[in-house]
Amino acid sequence: MSNKKLEDLDCPWCGRGASLDITGCRFVLCPMSGRYIDIILDAVKQVDTRKIWHTTDKLSTIYRGKRIHVTDAVKACFVNAYQQDVHMVMEATFSKGCPGDTDADSFLSEDNVLMNQARIADKHFPVLCKFAFYPMGMDDYIRHIAHIANLAIERGVYLESSHYATVLQGDVHDIFDYFDEVMKYAEQNISHYILEATLSVNSPTK
Amino acid sequence: MSNKKLEDLDCPWCGRGASLDITGCRFVLCPMSGRYIDIILDAVKQVDTRKIWHTTDKLSTIYRGKRIHVTDAVKACFVNAYQQDVHMVMEATFSKGCPGDTDADSFLSEDNVLMNQARIADKHFPVLCKFAFYPMGMDDYIRHIAHIANLAIERGVYLESSHYATVLQGDVHDIFDYFDEVMKYAEQNISHYILEATLSVNSPTK
């Protein structure tokens, strides 16, 4: 623990910003089972991370790289962790463009060939998802949020608007495809965004 | 599922806004144990919710009301769910001021007497927390974020800055006191904010 002021620290608010095209995701897997350690470690281990930068700490796993490879890897980790008999939640923060981001801790692959998609393409299961999108530093952020909610309706993954979130429902691939579409839109229209999602599978609540 | 456009729906982006002083929190408890259903239901049931509006759906529990009563209730639910031998994660979105919020679904108690604090005050355990704060609709949002990170340093709960989050560490009461302090600052300085936190206890990772 430190009692220094933030200006003295190597912090993400010091206004450097990344010059590279880095999308990132920090996520936590929560399988509600006594076997959670094996489920998490196996899932993380099975992800092909050759086209992204990655690290796992006590709180979460972080992937950084090209948008499509980050989405591919996070989806793969979630699909790998899925067990038919286990209620599981994943909390994921996708982000790009933080003024305090750096070029460090990243790997940008030149090509667009997804490393995990082929191996998980045939695995399907329904996901319920609490979703929020935050465009930073803009007066008219609500316009972008409305556009992104409409995208969910168009893609058939919109269930309802609720307090502090949009609720999405759909096959795991459709949910992650939507995330990728949202981030593609954001890259073109918003300098700094956060996509915050909490995904749930096999909830015992009817 | 709906194929209507969002303008046709009763949605949170329709620009009404609440006229009442409503802070809210939507949170998910994830005890990584085969006993998760009992742990969650017992924890939720034990919270004294007489001074807030509350509902629990398939995805999460929502509390809405006066800031101090919402913080008190969320902390109580987390403390109630804590088990010495169970790794648990709570994902919580606190928010106030969304232009699409409504006065509905709220209860604003007149007094400031906390309903849960006395019963949980003696329960202490260390928490590791991924924390992010999003001031919406402002050019200079980074200034507020830096102020809030400095508050964490001053209060001794700041561990480090990391990709897409500040990492907090401290006793459960210090962590929630910090959240409340952040939201108090936000009420005075920011029209719409989101405080996003993922709290972790008893992680087996060293």
From TrEMBL, chains A, B:
Residues 22-101, 128-205 form the Thiamin/hydroxymethyl pyrimidine-binding YkoF putative domain. InterPro entries: MTH1187/YkoF-like, Thiamin/HMP-bd_put_YkoF. This is Thiamine-binding protein. It comes from Fumia xinanensis.
